[in-house]
Amino acid sequence: TTLVHRGGQFAIVKRCREKSNGREFAAKFIKKRQSMASSRGVRREEIEREVDILRQIRHANIVTLHDVYENRTDVVLILELVSGGELFDFLAQKESLSEEEATQFIKQILEGVNYLHARKIAHFDLKPENIMLLDKNVPLPRIKLIDFGLAHKIEAGVEFKNIFGTPEFLRHSGEFPL
C-alpha cells in the first residue's frame, strides 16, 4: 500500500487492492478517539456522520464510498481511488488553461456542490486540497470532491453556531450561506 493523501490530523489515505479481482481503491484510515477524556482521534459520532453522508451521495464529481471496516483503533472507509492528484498541483504544473478547460473544471466543481446543496449537505471544508482529479492523464480530467469529515446535513430551523473548516479558507464575516 502507498500513501495517497493525508486526510487531516487523524486520517491517512492509502491505495489498496481487492484480492478477488485486483480492483484498486483508496482506504481512508480514521483514528478513533479511545476515551471521552482524550483529544486524540475522531469522536465516533463524527465518523458516523461522515459515513452517513457519504452513503447518501452518488455523483460523478464526488468521491464514492464502497465499504466500511472497523478495527480496535481505526474506522476504514473504502473509497473510489482518485489518483490524479490535487487540482491545485495540476494547475501549478500546467501553468495555463484554455477557456474550455477552465470552464469544464468550474462546471464540475459547481455541479458537485449543487448536488450536495440540493440534498441539504454542506461540505464545510471545500478548499484546493479537497478538489482532486480522478485521472490527470486525460484531456479533460474529471473533478472529484473529497474529504467529508466536516460535512453536515442541514436541517430546517437548526442553526450552526460552531465554525467548521480550515482556518485559512473560512469567511471572516462569520456567515455561512448554503
Write up this protein:
With 178 residues, this protein is α+β, with helices and mostly antiparallel strands. The protein is built from three helices and nine strands. It has two domains: 3-80, 2-Layer Sandwich (Phosphorylase Kinase, domain 1), CATH 3.30.200.20; 87-169, Transferase(Phosphotransferase) domain 1 (Transferase(Phosphotransferase), domain 1).
Oligomeric status of the shown chains? single chain
Which fold name is given in CATH as the topology of the largest domain? Answer: Transferase(Phosphotransferase), domain 1
Low-confidence stretches: none
Number of DSSP-assigned strands: 9
Number of domains: 2
The string of secondary-structure elements, in order, is: EEEHEEHHEEEE
**CATH C-level name of the largest domain:** Mainly Alpha
- The CATH superfamily of the largest domain appears as Transferase(Phosphotransferase) domain 1
Radius of gyration, whole Å: 17 Å
GO molecular function: ATP binding; protein serine/threonine kinase activity
Domain Protein kinase: 1-178
GO biological process, one term: intracellular signal transduction
Organism: Cyclopterus lumpus (Lumpsucker)
Fold blueprint:
Elements: E1 3-6, E2 11-17, E3 24-31, H1 44-56, E4 65-70, E5 74-80, H2 87-94, H3 99-118, E6 121-122, E7 131-133, E8 143-145, E9 152-153
Antiparallel strand pairs: 1-2, 2-3, 3-5, 4-5, 6-9, 7-8
Features:
single chain, 178 residues, alpha+beta, Phosphorylase Kinase, domain 1, Transferase(Phosphotransferase), domain 1, five-stranded antiparallel β-sheet, two-stranded antiparallel sheet, 24% strand
